[in-house]
Amino acid sequence: MDEIHLDGLTLTKYGMLFLEEYETAVVADLHIGYEDVMASQGVFLPKVQRRYLLAILSEIYDRYGPKRVIIDGDFKHEFSRNMPQEWDEIEEVLDYISDRSEIIVVRGNHDNFLKGILGRRGLELYDSYSLGNYFFVHGHKDVEIRGTTIIGHEHPSITLRDEIAATAKVPCFLYSPDLIVLPALSIYAAGTDITRNDFISPILRKNWRDFEIYGIDENLGVIPLGRLSSLQAPSGGYPRPR
Question: What angle do CA 207, 210, 214 make, to 5 degrees?
Fold first, then answer.
């Protein structure tokens, strides 16, 4: 199925969470400029991410018509400066969204130099953002959960294996009523395999939840994959909350 509805939320095959009451689309971890950063290190990747992101955004607007888009951190990739590809592509994505809806950008750990780009368009870079009962932070810092907290940063995924041991890594949403983790929107974000019990977000390390897992696939859509506690974990399993 292309989408799953949960308590006023829609999980979509685009890796976008839609807040139905507020007509708001939420995405995270675009990592714009990744190809340019890798090229500077001698690894040359096809420059496809800009086209991919604009195509995804076009489908989101056509299908859901959001009045607001929240980018929940790591809009860009390079930590230390604004690279030329990043600058151009961020401006293109900003213009695309701003022409169609309000845009809110939450600071991620890769967004050190994003404020200057946003400032040219009169946009703020938020450390956190609240909308009704929803609270948005990127997830790279330890903060207290409020209402329904929505984070990125983790790039959650799950590795699926078939009967001949072929594998595929599938990005996924992690869902609980008070804490939701978004998949990365970047085409190059391999993701953290949640079966390995090694969360990188301090929020997740501190606030274990028996998340419902929803994989996303371009062709199959949103795939319910059960609960986190049902997955095999190494060396004693997942920690339980105190």
Answer: 115
Q: Is 232:12 a contact under the CB 8 Å cutoff?
A: no
DSSP state of 76: B
**Token reading at 82:** 């604004």
Q: Does residue 240 carry a pLDDT above 80?
A: no
Q: Where are the beta strands (DSSP E) in the chain?
A: 3-6, 9-12, 17-19, 24-27, 68-72, 102-106, 125-126, 129-131, 134-136, 148-151, 156-161, 167-176, 179-181, 192-193, 212-217, 221-227
pLDDT of residue 44: 61
In the chain, the domains with their CATH numbers are 3-230 (3.60.21)
Which residue has better confidence, 213 or 188? 213
What's the number of CA atoms in the CB half-sphere (13 Å) around residue 233? Answer: 17
Question: Please, what is the average pLDDT of the chain?
Answer: 86
Residue 160: the pLDDT is: 74
Q: Are 175 and 168 in contact (CB under 8 A)?
A: no
The length of the chain is 242
CA angle (205 as vertex; 202, 206 as ends), nearest 5: 85
Q: Are 157 and 169 in contact (CB under 8 A)?
A: yes
List, for residues 161-201, the tens digit of each pLDDT value.
666 656 778 999 999 999 999 999 988 876 778 887 789 99
